[in-house]
Amino acid sequence: MIEPAFSKKEKKEIRKQFPYLNNGSIYLNHAAISPLSTGVNGAIRQFLNDRHEDSVENFERWMSRVEDTRKLIGDFIGAESPDQITFMGNTSEAISAVAEGFDWKEHDEIILNTLEFPSNIHPFRILENRGVRLIYVEPDKDGIIQPEALEHVITSNTKMLSISAVQYLSGLKANLKKIGEICKKHRIFFVVDGIQALGATNINVKDFGIDALASGCHKWLMAPMGIGFLYLSEKLQLSLSPYKTGWLSVTNPWQLSDFDQDWLPVSKHLEVGTLNIIGIEGLHASLRDFNKTGPEAIFNEVKTLNRYLFEKLSAHPKVALLTPGNEEYRAGIVTFSIDDENDTDGVVKKLNKEKKITITARQGWYRISPHYYNTTEELDLVLKELLPS
Questions:
Q1: CA distances from 18 to 14, 24, 195 (A)
Q2: How far is 313 from 309, CA to CA, in rounded Å?
Q3: Distance of alpha carbon 342 from alpha carbon 228, whole angstroms
Q4: pLDDT at 2
Q5: DSSP codes of every residue in 29-43
Q6: Of the four, 125, 284, 292, 312, which is 20 to 30 A from 1 by CA?
């Protein structure tokens, strides 16, 4: 049995960091976008105030914050060096850097699966113009993308395997460690879309053998929109060419008239110009909040809430669950349907308008995604509204 990670007193203090709760709202859609904590909001406001009414130029402090945040990300995902972290705008941009930067040859193959969000499909799909083949693996009867099924389609032409750590619709959590072992065995690169996992469950790039981890940070990491990152292993960095470049891509960018400088390593090269400092300030504050609270405690609380919700739904005779029953394959998302309920979008809109409850509907399914500050009482209230008696 998983015990709650926080006492009622601790949970009460945590919830004070999210003022939107004061108006009676219940927010359970962290798989889409998260609210910003008081700490994140304060960090962003401080940056805006500096630009608006204070010293305006604080480049040294901002650059220091950039490097501090790079280190926080590296530590959070178990990277060997913060130099392996490149700031990106979102998951799609990060995956595109891998897809466009790799030296593909005609008939090369990349393994994907049919459950993916388009961010992990389209950057590779465009490579079909170069003769690259996309190999799609289907889930088994329980909705699981089995590592053995992925290994079964590997050939001598396979160069890369890409998968979401957690699938956006079903909530399936991939067995990254096993898949990483398979990729290492067959000497292919292992790419992971981490946006539905980071902040809800543990990802350690070294332990899992991940070569590229791409993620935006506005979902479970609870940072602003428009800030993300790409982790690259040393091995994959050596196999990539930058797919874009800019004035900051050279060894000494302030030598403005020297056009023949050496390029920076790809991880730095891809930061081509002025960074999203507002987003980085917010991400820094969010990661600081996570570290203060304790990542393992947060992951445990997400797991506890997921289990509570799953068991409640499983017990209802009119509910069909899309999310896997085996807890090993779950993180923060629970997706389900209700018999005789067809207008899921309408129900979701009505809940939000009349009850201040936010969940989402995806492809005719309900999706609920609670984070660590949510409570079982909130889940009970939502289920009372949703489920027929």
A1: 8, 12, 21
A2: 6
A3: 35
A4: 63
A5: BTTT--PPPHHHHHH
A6: 292
